[in-house]
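Standup notes
- DV: blocked on the single-chain target, sequence here:
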Amino acid sequence: MTPNIGKLLPTDELLSHQIVDTFATVAESDLSWTEKIWVSIPRKDGSLQIDFGLGRYQNRNVMDGFAGISRGNEQWTVRASRELAADPTATLVGPLSYEVIDPLERVRFRLGENDVIPLTFDVMFERRLPPYFEDRHAQRDEQGFRVVSNVVRYHQAGRVSGWLAVDGKKQDIRSDDWFAFRDHSWGVRLDVGAPPTDLRPARDFGERDFGGSSFLLHWTPMMLERPDGTRYEYHYYLQMRGGRPFYFSGYLNHSNGTQERVGRVRPQIAYDDRTRRPQKGVIHFDMLDGETRTVEVERIGESGFYLGTALYLGFDGKKHGMWRGAQHIDGERITDTTDDQTLRRIHQLRDSIIRVREGNATGYGIFESIATGPWPDFGLSAESSFV
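- DV (later): unblocked, structure below
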């Protein structure tokens, strides 16, 4: 290896370089640099949901991931981690595998045999709509100067096929009965690794203090289909503190790939005060041309994968991107996610399954949410807040 030039990788044979270095090097040396894959694959009746994620932490020499299911109030998760340098171009870790079959059209997610939980699957995701970018998530430490988030992300709605085996019982995944959303993000990301012990504590994510005030996060893609078979999508990502937004990205996305910016979003949704899970309501999208479009939203079933066991916001002292050794695998089978102790352990962020309607167009979506402190308009008091 030549001094001051990164390690040569097979991907360096491609005519795709964008910085004066090899693909072993990313643009910044920040330890929070992350490239992440996520997919949620629910049944349309809300009875079962598959979740999968993979993270590459270039400056930490780590690749980690998770796969699991939510089945009613049960949640099964397997997590894996490995040394990135041992195989830097492979998008697999332990029994988890991610494969691009046809870029932006078809990708494959697999969980192989493992000694943690009796769960395996092999799912092909195929495009229903083009991928759409969200606005860059740029955020600074409000108590200091560091850029703590500088992430770009695209997401995509798809149909799925394949199979799933739970406790040795195999079932086919038929596209008419399931739907899926996936995303792909990269950049400097919040909540990677253990928080530094010699810095003023940050707030808003992970094991850090949420500031002692009301904090709200919504991230939700939803695809709708008209009676004539044409499809479109809404997506918004909202973060608020003390009743005021400090990050917002919202779009009405058309099937030809064009995007209309949403000027403001006004969710009117009832929550379960104990679990902080969205239940039903409407979302008003105020467009830049003055039109207001309203989408009805309703939670389906009890399933909804809690992302805490996937290390979002931390789990039992473990965090995204932590070094766990050359190879590591663990996980658990939670039989009841509704008791207080478990809710505190797994946090409230989950991939809730929703049914949506706008006029004669209907469809499905994923609703991720955090709500701490009182939010009277959502029926949330200050007392119940499983962060």
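- Follow-up: The two ends are 46 Å apart (CA to CA).
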